[in-house]
Amino acid sequence: MHVDHLQLSDFRNYREADVDFARGPNLFVGRNGQGKTNLVEAIGYLSTLGSHRVPTDAALVRQGCDSAIVRARLAHEDRSILAEVQINRTGANRAQVNRSAIKPRELPRYCTSVLFAPEDLALVRGEPSGRRRMIDELLVQIAPRMQGVLADYDRTLRQRNTLLKSARATGAKAGALSTLDVWDDRLVEFGAEIVAARDHLTRRLAPFVTESYATVAGERHQASIAGVLSVRGADPEDAAATDPVLGTPEEPVTISAAAEAFRAALERRRRDELDRGLTLSGPHRDDVLFELNGLPARGYASHGESWSFALAVQLASATILRAESSLGDPIIILDDVFAELDESRRERLAGAVADYEQVLITAAVHGDVPGQLAAHTVRIEAGAILPDPASDATGEPDATDEPDATDEADADRASRPDPTPAAS
């Protein structure tokens, strides 16, 4: 699938924006802080219902405004639809498809994307919450109904935690524990489905991660991923935990097996939960273990290896979506990625995504982006979208043009050593 046109109102730094997109690569060039990332962030929001930069929607609404509008014309084969979301600073968001109201959580049915950004380094080096979010966003794009299951689980978890805090304050009276059993049933119902779905997806991703790592890094290190399940005794969210890190079991996890393990974990940790007023087992405390040559990438991978691993995970996600989504190719978004990579990784990443139906790239420096991805270039300046006078149809600079500030930045960047070391 691809985006034909994007219209924004009061989104980030844009009062109004209208942008036409081409199939294939689209490069947006401009100095930092001009609004390049805001454009691709809006498209990513349609497929994930969130931002890769901020945890809440309020930051997406232009300062002084109550709401923002993202409207995109999306095309797949001979079908075209108009998808729209109104992001409200307060209150529930609203969504439409072809001018008919839908629930916002249904938007991923109509738009799929995979976004690569500097923030992806946290997938390898950051906390479990980021890896859970990555898996869940991909899961929802493949099976949109899981958005509702995840929401039901979060709502039940909050209510159960409230009851645990109340039970702790009242000394865990029998009446409170009886009510807790009711919430346990609901938590297990939703949580078991999430655990099983994540397990299936992680297993599907694993071989593609191994393959993609070799593609990006150009080396045959063994990159692997596996689920870490708190219902099996691990506690990735507790830095002081002494429980072993338990990866994905040999046999795929079924919903019934997940439910049995989840219920047993709740019973096993009931006293600890009452003492802490917190639910200590379940998919909200799971993790995804990234390993490189049999060692945890989080503690052992170099900077270059960590970057290659993060890119490999996103490339694997794109491969899964290409194979399993009814919408065909996902939109590939490369947000300020090339500045973080050495030249060999730039070329390998460009080669890996070049055959996708649409690739959107942002960059502060035109020269950072391999030529094969610079055929259609647009300049962004202070929230204004400008034609690129320094590029012809092939994306190459026109020697007759006077250099502008960004061209000077190109030269300055070229004179400095690349900040990213090669993978060790």
Automatic annotation (TrEMBL):
Gene3D superfamilies attached to this UniProt entry: P-loop containing nucleotide triphosphate hydrolases, RecF/RecN/SMC, N-terminal domain
Claim: Cell membrane is one of the keywords in the record: no
Binding site for ATP: 30-37
Stretches assigned to the RecF/RecN/SMC N-terminal domain: 3-364
Keywords in alphabetical order: ATP-binding, Cytoplasm, DNA damage, DNA repair, DNA replication, DNA-binding, Nucleotide-binding, SOS response
Keyword check for Cytoplasm: yes
Region (Disordered), start-end ranges: 385-424
Subcellular location: Cytoplasm
Skewed-composition ranges (Acidic residues): 398-410
InterPro entries, sorted: DNA-binding_RecF (IPR001238), DNA-binding_RecF_CS (IPR018078), P-loop_NTPase (IPR027417), RecF/RecN/SMC_N (IPR003395), RecF_2 (IPR042174)
Pfam name, any one: SMC_N
Domain of life: Bacteria
Family as reported in the entry's similarity comment: Belongs to the RecF family.
Chain's role: The RecF protein is involved in DNA metabolism; it is required for DNA replication and normal SOS inducibility. RecF binds preferentially to single-stranded, linear DNA. It also seems to bind ATP.
NCBIfam families in the cross-refs: recf
Protein's UniProt name: DNA replication and repair protein RecF
